[in-house]
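Supplementary Methods. Inverse-folding protocol.

Structures were first reduced to a discrete structure-token string of length 57. This string, shown here, constituted the complete conditioning input.
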């Protein structure tokens, strides 16, 4: 479900929540979408870019 951008990840999450709000078919998890919420109550998105420096000669 994680995508290259936050926007794409949010879109994918909304699709999952619309298709499987109890989260036991498409994206299995321990708790589904709670009544009154529009998404999970505990989530984070962190994007880290790693770069391997090449030694100067």
């Amino acid at each position: 479900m994680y995508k290259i951008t936050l926007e794409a990840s949010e879109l994918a999450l909304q699709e999952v929540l619309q298709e499987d709000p109890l989260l036991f078919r498409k994206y299995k998890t321990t708790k589904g979408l709670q009544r009154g919420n529009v998404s999970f109550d505990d989530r984070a998105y962190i994007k880290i870019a790693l770069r391997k420096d090449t030694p100067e000669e």
